[in-house]
Every structure is written in C-alpha cells, then in structure tokens.
Amino acid sequence: MKNRLLVFFFFCLFSSAAFAQTAPTRFTLQATVTDTLGTKLNSVTVMLQTGKDSVLTSFGRTDETGKFSLKGIKRGTYILKITYVGMMPLNQKVNFDTDQTVDLGTIKLKPIAKELYEVVVKAARAPLTIRGDTVEYDTRAFKVPPGSSVEDLLRKLPGVIVDREGNIRAQGQEVKRVTVDGKQFFSDDPKTATKNLQAEAISKVQVFSDKTEKAKLTGVDDGTKEKTMNLELKEEFKKGGFGKITGGAGPASNLPARAEVRGSYNKFDKKQQLSLIGLANNTNQTGLSWADYQDFRGSNSFNWNDNADFGFSSGNYYIIGGGDDESFSIPITGGDRGRGLSDNVAGGANYNYDTKKTKVSSNYYFSQTKLRTESLGEVTNFIPTGDLNTTTASNQTTKNSSHRFSFRLEKQLDTLNTLVFSTSGRYNTSTALLLSTRDIRRILNTATTPTTSNTTVNSRNGQSFGLSNALIYRHKFMKKGRSFAASANYELSSSDGTLDLEARNRFFEATDINDQLRIISQLQSTNSNVSQYKASLLFVEPLSKKFFWESFYNFSLRYDEVDRNVLNTQTDTPTRNDSLSRYYTNTYLYNRLGTSLRYTNKGLNLGIGGAVQQFQINGQYASDQTLPILGRIDRTFTTFVPNMSVNFDLKNNKYLYGGYNVGVQTPTSRQLQPIVDNSNPLFITQGNPDLLPAITHRLNLGFNYFNPGSFTNFYGGVNYGYNINQIVYGQTIDTRTLITSTRPQNITGGYNFGYYSYLSFPLKKTKATLDLGGNLNLGQLITPINGVNNQTNTTNYNANLKLSLTPADWFTFYGSAEVGIGNARYSINTAQNAQTINNSYQADANVKLPGDIYVSSSFNYQIYRNQRFGFNQGIPLWNSAIYRLIGKAKRMEVRLSAYDMLNRNVNVTQYAGQNSVSSERTRTLARYFMFSMTYNMRGIKASVRQSNGWD
Amino acid sequence: MTRLLKPVLFTLLLLTTYLSEAQTNQTEGVVLYTRRTFWPKITARMTYLSQEQKDRAANTWKNEEGSKEKMKLTFTPTTSLYGYESESSESEDGRYTWRNRELALFRDFANEKQVDIEEMLGKVYVVEDSLRAPSWKIGNQVREIAGHMCINATTTDSVKDQVLTAWFAQDIPVSAGPERICGLPGLILELDINNGDVIIETASITFKPVAADIKLPKVKKPKKLDEKGYETMLKTYIAEQIKEQQNPYWEIRY
Fold first, then answer.
1. Among the four A558, A578, B26, B134, which has the fewest Cβ within 10 Å?
2. Strand A811-826 and strand A834-849: pairing?
C-alpha cells in the first residue's frame, strides 16, 4: 500500500512537470525532515513553488526515514514549502543553478504552540495565517457584541490573555507594543489602542516578534525581540447610500402644462436599510413601479411565509402585489397610465433591521390621487321583451387620499421555533362628484326621443379605516419533516360615508302624468363596521421519506354591522325614507377541517386530500335599530372540498404540472347587505343576505419546456372551471320605466374553459428572436333576466407575435402584433350575437448615437371594432424620446420626450357578455412634451435593448 | 517553560503518530459536501446590469441564505468520482423534491484521464480528455476542517473568470477534489468559488474501501466533446447569454 502510494506521488511529480521534460537541464531536490528533537517525520507534505509567482510546480511526501526527493526541476528560484500536522509550516528559498542535485540536509520543523493549535483545531471557522513568526487572526471568526472594544475582542482570541488592567500576553509573552495599520496609535501604552478602538473596525489581529524600539532607533540589533501586536483596520464595512431624482416639465395640447418629479434615497449597512421615496405628477402615474417598490421595501419586498390561512399546499409560491384603496399593500402600477386625467402625490419611509435571528420592518406610505374622467358609453341590453339601448355621458371628479402603515417582526426564537407578527393599517378619505346623463331607448323604436332619460348629480364623501394583525408561530420538531404551525388574526374595517343624490328621471311612455317625472333628492349616510377573528392550525407528519401527512384546521368569525339612514330632502324638512334605510347585523361563522397526503420522490410531487367546511350565517335586518325586524337569515351550509395536485420535474428542462381543486368564494359584505343602492336611479343594485358561498371545480394541466442550448422556450396548458352557486347579478327590467334592478344570486351551471400556449425561439442567436403566443377561452354564463335564464356563450381567441431584432449594440427594433376576437351568443336573443375585435400593432426602434445620445421611438396602433353595432375606433399612439448621459460617471441624464405626438389618445373599452354589449370612450392624457433631468448617485446605464424584467 | 512544553510535545507526538498511523487508511472513502450558491452575488457580476439593478438585487435578497445542494465525492488514491449525492434534491422539510441534473465527474490520476458526464443546455455531454490540473498557488493560511488540518491554495478559471480558493487536507494524500478541481497534495475539503459566490463545504468524510463504487453511468445518446470543445462551448454560451442580457449561470454550473 505504502509503496503504491509513493509510486503515485512520484508519478504525480513527473506528470506535473512533464511539460518541461524537453528542457536540457533538470535538477533534483532532496532533504530529510525531522522535528526539533531529531525524530524523522513520515509523510510530510513537501511542495515546490516558483519564486516569481509562487505557482505550485511539484509536490511529494517524505518516506519512513523522513527523506524526500523531488526530481525533474527546471532551472530557477523556488520556494520550498513544508507542512505537517502540528508543526509550523516552513518556507525556504531554493536556487537551482549549478548543482544538479540540491541536498538541504536535515530540515527541522518547529511545533506549533499548544494555544495556537487549539485555535486552529477547535475554532473550526477560524482561519489562521502563519507566515514565519507572524500569526494572523481573522476577526470575523470571533464574535463579540456590537459596541465591544478591541480589548473584548482580544479576550476571545485563543493564545491571547488580557488581565484586569488590560495588559496583554500573547503566546506566553507580554505584548509591549500595539500598532494600528503598522503605525503607533497616539501613545506608547499598548492599552490606548485596545481600550479605545471599536472591535467592529478591526479586520485582522497580527502578533509577531519585532526588534525593540531602541534597536530600531539606533540601528544596532541587540538580538532582543519583543512581542508586537498590529491591528488592521477594516475597509469601511459594507455600508452605502444612494439616491436619485428626476424632474421634468413641458407643454400639453388642450391642457395646462404637465410636470413630474420623483426622488428616492436609500441608506444601508449590514443590518439596516432606510429608504425614502416621493413622487408628484400630473401625468397619470399613480403609484410605484416594481423597481421603486423593491428599492423602497428592500429586504422586505417579498415575505413568503406570511400567509396565516393554512390549507392545502400545492408546493408553489405566490405573490400578491398591487392593491387599491381598500388594500393594505402599497399600490404598484407597472407603468400603466390608466384612464382619465390624474394628479398624483405619494411618499413614504421604510426602515428594515435584519439580523439572522430578528427581522424588523416598518413603513409608512401616503398617496393621493385626484382623477377626472369624462366618458361616453353605450350599452345594448338583451331582454325577453325587446332590446334596449342606453347612452351615458358622465363627468366625474374623485379625490382619494390614503395613509398606510405596516410593521412586521420575525423572530427566530431558536433553531426550531419562529414567530412572525405583522400589523398593517390604512386610513382613507375620499370625495367624488359625478354628473351624468342617460337615455334609454327601445331598439325597435325609431322615435328620436328616448323612452327614459335621467340626469344625476351625486356628491360623495367618505372615510374608512382598516387594521389587520396577524401572529404566526411555526415549530419544527427534531424529527425531520414534522412541523406544527398556529396563527391568529384580527381584522377590523370600518367606513363612514354620505351620498347627496340629486336625480331627475323622465319616463316618456308613462300614461299617468304623475309618473312622467320623478325627482329624487336624498341624503344617504352609511356606516359599516366589519370585524373578523381568524385562527388556523397546521400539522405535518412525515410517514416515510416519501410520504407526508398534512392536516389543518381553520376558524373564522366575521361580524358585520351596517347602519344606513336615508333622508328625503325634496322639502325643506327632510323626512326619513324607511324603505331605503336599513340596520343590519350579520355573523358569518366558518370552520374547515382538512387533511391531505403528499408523495414526493425524485422530482415527482403528488398531493391528494379533502376538507369539510361549514358556513353558518345568522343575520337580521330592520329599517332602523329601534324598528321591528323585517327579516332574519339563519343558514348553515356544509360542503366537502377535494384537492389534488401533481408537479413533475422531467429530464432536460421539462416540467409537467396539474391539479384539481375546489375553490370556495364567500360573498363580500357588500353582496350580502340588504341595502338598496340607487345612486344610479336607472340601475338599482341590491344586496342579498341569503347568498351562499360560490364553489368552483377547477382542473388544470400545464407543460413547460426550455432548451437553453437553442434558446427555445415553450409553455402551454389547459384549464377548466365549473361553477356551483356562482354569484351572478340577475336583472329585472321594468317594462314601462325601463329601470333595471339587479341583485346577486346563486346560479349553478356556468363554466369556462381556457387554453394557452407560448413559443419563443431565436431566428439567429443574439440577433433575432421570435415569440408566438395564443390562447382560447370558452365560457358560459347564466343570468336570470326578468325571471328567464339567459345563457351567454362567449368564445375569445387571441394570437400574438413578437419579433425582436437586436443586430448591434447601437440599434434594436421590436415589432409585435396582437389579434383578439370575441364572440358572444345570447340564448335570450340569438339575433344579437356579437363579435368584438381588439387588435394591436406595435413597432419600437432604439438607436444609440455617438456622444452617449440615445433616441427611441415607439408607434402603437389599436383597433376596437364591433361591426354589428357599428363601433369602430382606431387609436394611433406615437411616442419618442431623445436623451443623453452626461459626465464621466454618467450620473446625469437629460431627456426630451414627446408623448402621443399625433394627439389621438383616448381610452376605449368594449365588452360583450352577460346579456349586453357595451363600449365606452374616456378622455385621457394625450399629447404632451417633457424636458426632464435625472441625477442618479449610482450612475445611469442606458441600453437600446428592452430589459428582461430587471427594471 | 520546558516543563510545560514537554507534555505538550508529547501529546503532539502522540497525535502525529496516531495520524500517520491512520494515514494508510485515509486514502479511500467518501466526502459529502454542501454546495451553497449565493445568487445575488452572481447577479452582481452581470456586466449588462447597472449598479442600481445590482444594488437592488442585493438589498432585496440580502436575507436569503444560499441555495443548498448536497454533493458527493468518492475517492481512492488513484481515482475519484464527483456528483450529486442523490438523483433529486428536496426542500428543507423534505416535503418537495426536484430532479437534479445528471453529473458524474471522473478523474483517473494514474492514467491521467478525465471523463465528465454533465447535463447542461438541454443535453447530456460526455467530455473526455487527458487530466488537467489547474496551476495552484499555495497560501499561508491553515484551518481545521472536519478534523483535518488544511492549507489554502488558489487558482483561477479563465472560462468563467473566477478566483478559486481551495482548502486541502495535509493528512489525506489524495489529489481529488469537488467539481472539476483537483491536483493538490491533499484532498480538497472546501472550495470557495469567486470570493463566496459559491461555497462547497465538507459535511462529512468517511474512510472506507470504495474502489468498486467508482463507475461511470451509461449515457444514452451522449454528445461527445474534448476539453477544448467543452471550453469553447461554455465560452460561446456565456458570451451569447451576456449579450442577450440573461444570466448564463442559471443553466450551466457556476
């Protein structure tokens, strides 16, 4: 065995030096290695490095007699390095010049001092550098509490002793001198440095023997050496700050000048992140971009384990982003400029403190949007007694302000226990003024006067407050895979609003003169309080390495209270309207108990399970607290919910996934409240306290394939959903007044089916890429119209194509086309089957010119068409920008942009479904120019390429 | 002083004797490594990203611990085989598994041969060539890893532009190591790729006869390459991906 080993080592020697065998002169190095007592050392590692760049050229080991021999060495200067367990490594210069064989005789290795050996052996994470006499400690390996002095740090270093007075001894000898970065620190006393310097500022501690100060001064070496300690200062530990600011202004067509400003500043070190952000504009940018959001929230941008409602685990994560005024999360708009014209102000501060065990995050965010919308809409409704056409012109101004705050604490109690506490709150105020006029005509009626017409002035005021608190506790057992989690949650939502409703309704077909004009003048005030208590438990037991058994329990109790008072204000003394006033209380109790079995092996993940859930609704309503109860709701609803999922990781980047689950959607408070909303007197909405939860059986199957070699990417899939007790808005249309009343109700039988696929591949690698996508959606919706079930079948096709040309660093072109066709068929009136077309074509070109000047231009053409109803609108949108980076560090950008150069922008929506076909045009931000400047402390990088989702 | 030193030396001597005695058996066995990848650090190397984007990634993901993989090195004095410990990896609680790419890196020091079976870029490649050891620089630091005194050595990878720091055991005279790295006077027990972008640490070492376990798996439809072809392919791919503004290391080993 030993012989074989030796042969192998010598073999290694030759092979590593084999390339040099043609050179004329070869040298041999030999020596015997012993310890200080003369004992011959066996199997000592011997390495030969080049003197110039210390590259390892050959290595070997000593034999039983302590001898080694390295052969085939080329001429030159080398460093011989000898290492052995428990001995100080030895470095020695060797020259190969004249003698063919260099014999170094006996080399004695010194033992490593016990204290040092312990440092090395015991402190596993402590790399120790030994260079001749110098021993270097890496301070990262020795933890001291923040704020500790160097003295505290030294006490942690094995081999170093600090007494009560602060005197230092290293390797048994007193340390006479302490230097900082090789220089004396203020005074001769070594304690000055160790007592005053912060441990955090030190990266390395070196201990070595040096000539005495006297010897250095006189230049006469008296042979006396004294222990010296050098403290090496850290390069400022990771710490930084960055910020950016953009401001711009310019003229707009038919509107006052547009301006925008946006700034952010971040400061961080290893543990802390502080960020500030602010924006103001009248260019429809309501919220943050994803990049802004990430900069603002830092390490707390995404928190995976904050879902306190445990249930079936499908093995995939999901992110919930964005949000409206009712949401606790900070609004994120992906560059979408929305409809109407909006003025926006927003700003906030975020602070994160993260250590391995404790993570704290808190933030405050304020946003305010003033939105003006002017719309023209047209709706055709299909009803059994003949179709109706409604035209609406509306003008609305809303102002919403919201304050949001959140606090989150994650504490790792120990390796097995984790606690997460989070609280979020919001306070919103809103005002809205709506002016609208509506005309309803019977389609068959050729008369120019409408059947019914209405003008409304609605003035709203409201405020709302919400609070959500969650506590999640997770425990891992010693047994791998066994875990337990418990959560508790309390949510509160309260709102208070008033509506001043002034409406004039004219009914031209009314025979009675009193019915021809109805004026509504009301003051409605609504106060609503919802509180909810939730608790969940989860337990996971590993049955084997491949099987896991998961069980969960959820409890929820919701209490709703709504007090609505409606006063008729036509006369000077307002009178109470009892038919519209309501006092309503409701408790909604929910219990779910579920279990599932999971199988996982070699990338195949399966889950199968089921849950039983029960809803119990108890409510009552009256015209007022003091008045007799008008109705009671007392219902219990129990259902079984199965769940299945599959995820399969196949060879060569192929993935297959699918599942079957039953979704249960509880009705919202608004849907349950037995309240009549007559804010649009021709379209009256009413809640339904009898509503049951909607259940959807969902099936899905999907496949992904990615070939990085050929840059080809494919995914596709199908999904199907069948609805039981779907919540749909049934309609009743008064045949004479044409007033529509709508009320949510449960209907079974609707379904939808979807197919999607996407393929991306290069036409020429790195130069041209083609993306193809398509999807198909089929759906059936059942809506009761005047007691008759109308079945609407919709078929939507969508196909898209994108060509990316990236031929050079200075030029790119992107062209895309998207075709969307929607068909709707109505059982109630088959003659009115409608087809809507939404097509979009886009071309983008970007050029980089000399002198860091960039030019980009994009042209988009949108087509909205519905031939049957004579709707045809094309919107060409042309934007351009020219910008330049300034300065060596490129921290500054100057930009001139033109938005909607053709001044044709308008917001269009069209819809064909349920029992109607509709279209709407809303005035929105059109042509404007802007000159803007950006300063970014981190520098600006411009590219003619579209980003891959990093921005 | 001398009185104190003597027993110390004696202990050291004992230890040394024990270690040299053990050495005969310490040339064959299995090392299990934990390979941790720190993605934000790798992201920061992407030249197409602005400083702002790099900082954003670093600040957003700073609390993420490196993604862990379990690797296995089977070694004898003359051969070694490196790959994943098992065909699949699992989540920390074991409830979810995913497939590992095929990987079998074989080194034959006696016959100066290397055969690498590596699934990457959607295919399984077989790279066969004569053994190539990087040119090492031996450092001055010593450290204990899994009960073995180790010395550091550094080298560079010109294809992926990385600095590699290896810690090799003085008392295990085997030239094997993790990934495609070898050629030091002792077994490599830790490998740091590019200042902490990837850290491969020893979880355990077991000494036992393993010569029979060092077998290369059979590959259906292998794509054969030599070292030069392999390096050219990687270089081209990295350059193309950087041009496409995509991180190439999602699909190739870092």
1. A578
2. antiparallel
Q: Is A173 on the interface with B (CB under 8 A)?
A: no
Is residue A201 situated within a structural domain?
Answer: yes
Has residue A192 been placed in a domain? yes
Pick A833 or A536 by higher pLDDT.
A536
- For residue B27, the distance in angstroms to the closest alpha carbon of chain A comes to 9
- CB contacts of B139 in chain A (<8 Å) are 129
Q: What is the per-residue pLDDT across A863-913, written as a single tens digit (0 to 9) for each?
A: 999 888 888 889 999 999 999 999 888 889 999 999 999 998 888 988 888
Same domain, yes or no: A49 and A92: yes
d(CA A832, CA A867): 12
Could you tell me if B143 lies within 8 Å of chain A, comparing CB atoms?
yes
| ipTM, 2 dp | 0.77
Q: What is the nearest CA distance from A138 to chain B, expressed in angstroms?
A: 10
Could you tell me if A80 and A156 lie in one domain? Answer: no
Burial of A239 (0-12, 13-18, 19+ CB in 10 A): exposed
* Structural domain boundaries, residue A37: 2-109
CATH code for B26-250? 2.50.20
CATH number at residue A65: 2.60.40.10
- Structurally, how many domains does chain A consist of? 2
Interface probe, candidates B27, B149, B165, B243, chain A, greatest A C-beta count within 10 A: B149
- Which pLDDT score is estimated for A118? 59
Give contacts of B 180-199 with A, CB under 8 A.
Answer: 183-186
Q: Same domain, yes or no, for A121 and A208?
A: yes
- Eight-state DSSP code of residue B26: T
Would you say residue A170 has pLDDT above 90? no
Q: Name the closest residue on chain B to residue A124, using Cα atoms.
A: B144
Q: Does residue A191 sit in the same domain as residue A229? A: yes
Specify the pLDDT at position A427.
Answer: 95
Q: Is residue A121 part of a domain?
A: yes
Strand partners, A635: A617
Spell out which residues of chain A touch residue B144, defining contact as CB-CB under 8 Å. 120-124
Closest chain B residue by Cα to residue A941: B50
Question: Greater confidence, A413 or A187?
Answer: A413
Give how far A425 is from chain B: nearest CA, Å.
23
CATH number at residue A162: 2.170.130
Is A403 exposed, middle or buried, given 0-12, 13-18 or 19+ CB atoms closer than 10 A?
middle
Is A130 among the domain residues? yes
Nearest to A950 among B9, B13, B49 (CB): B49
Alpha-carbon distance of A831 to A837, in angstroms, equals 19
Q: What is the mean pLDDT of residues A479-495?
A: 92
Write down the pLDDT at residue A99.
Answer: 80
Q: What is the DSSP string of A423-477?
A: EEEEEEEEEEEEEEEEEEEETT---SS-SEEEEEEEEEEEEEEEEEEEEEEEEE-
In the predicted model, is pLDDT for residue B9 greater than 50? no
A55 to chain B, any CB pair closer than 8 A? The answer is yes
C-alpha–C-alpha distance, residues A405 and A366, integer Å? 9
* pLDDT (0 to 100) of residue A514: 80
User: Predicted confidence band at A486 (pLDDT cuts at 50, 70, 90)?
Assistant: very high
* Nearest Cα residue to A138 out of B65, B145, B142: B142
- Pick A945's closest partner by Cβ from B61, B123, B245: B245
Which pLDDT value is given to residue A817? 96
End-of-domain residue from the set A75, A109, A143: A109
A129 & A227 share domain = yes
Question: Quick check: A600 and B62 CB within 8 A?
Answer: no
Q: Measured between CA atoms, how close is A491 to chain B, in angstroms?
A: 28
How far, in Å, CA of A907 to CA of A889, rounded? 41
Report how many Cβ contacts below 8 Å link chain A to chain B.
228
For A907, the token pair is: 């917001």
Write out pLDDT tens, residues B36-62.
Answer: 998 888 888 888 888 888 888 888 888
Q: Mark yes or no for CB contact B94/A481 under 8 Å.
A: yes
